[in-house]
Amino acid sequence: MGWLAQERFDLVLLDLGLPDTDGLNICRQLRRLPRHQPLVLMLTARDGRSDKQLGYEGGADDYVVKPFDPELLRVRLAALLRRADRPLQTQHSWGPLVHQPGQTVALVHGDPLELTPKEALLLEHLLRAHMRNLRQKLMAAGCDPNLIETVYGHGYRLHASAAA
Known about the structure:
The structure is a single chain. It is built from six helices and nine strands, in the order H-E-H-E-H-E-H-E-E-E-E-H-E-E-H. By secondary structure, it is an alpha/beta fold. Strand 1, helix 2 and strand 2 (39-44) form a beta-alpha-beta unit. The strands form three sheets. The chain has a four-stranded antiparallel sheet, covered by helices on one side. A three-stranded parallel sheet has the order 1-2-3, sandwiched between helices. 38% of the residues lie in helices and 22% in strands. It folds into two domains: 2-81, Rossmann fold, CATH 3.40.50.2300; 92-163, no CATH class.
């Protein structure tokens, strides 16, 4: 995993059934990277509904089951790469408070504040409530309703198609 944190990748094609580790754990580690987080396409023989759900909840951007159509895989990879420059993890801030979704440390005036997982989740929900207000104001001003996109488990990003 060290090489993934040291190099910048736009996309990782990840098999869940790796010989020395679980691909889902690698995906979760990728989602905790502090800077650039690559897009992840899980390619696996695990085709159960719960497997797919775990994959998406673990941070996968797409999930392809083996055997697969190589041309369809190529098209799905191209679609993901079109999104490669968009950050997946954003931070929320309110005054002196800054919080990264999924983290149990917030910053207050730049100083770390340790939170329990439940406190961090509550803080994240409160900060997201302000996102709803912002979305409503932007829509009232004539912006596309999908301008700000929610990325499940990670935060928000500007939706490219809304800018066109």
